[in-house]
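Exam prep: given the inputs below (a chain plus DQA), describe the expected output before reading on.
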Amino acid sequence: KSILLINGPNLNLLGAREPSIYGSTTLPDVIHAATQQCASKSIAFSHIQSNHEGVLIDRIHEARGDVDCIIINPGAFTHTSVAIRDAIVGVDIPFVEVHISNVHKREAFRHHSYLSDKAEAVVCGLGVFGYEAAIEWASRNVKPKEK
Ligand code: DQA
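Solution:
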């Protein structure tokens, strides 16, 4: 089984950025925990963070045929990007959408997601535990693709 974790724009600032909303855990902390969690379940794990929409789209394309589940926090692209939606739907890989904050408790422009209606699951408001929860869900529910 293999999981790709994708973090979009500004998530490189996790820990420093608006800590009252996003907490004090850093992205390297999240990656470290996810790496260990996957290793303990013998799941192959890869990850990318980028502030660039096209880089994220290219990585999604590369995952085709190679990754069984994508866990994605698209950051602000959640609310803007038809292109990321098309990419992730286009490669036909099941995905879980993760938001650290409860986007529904925040500004109205964060209430709509271009991804949620295509996601297997959406996690929001659990803080960085959302990543752990999503990986746990994937480890239990995602079937490795026949190749
Ligand atoms: C976020 C919520 C988005 O609205 C925001 O633009 C982010 C982070 C979250 O994890 O809560 O960058 O996806």
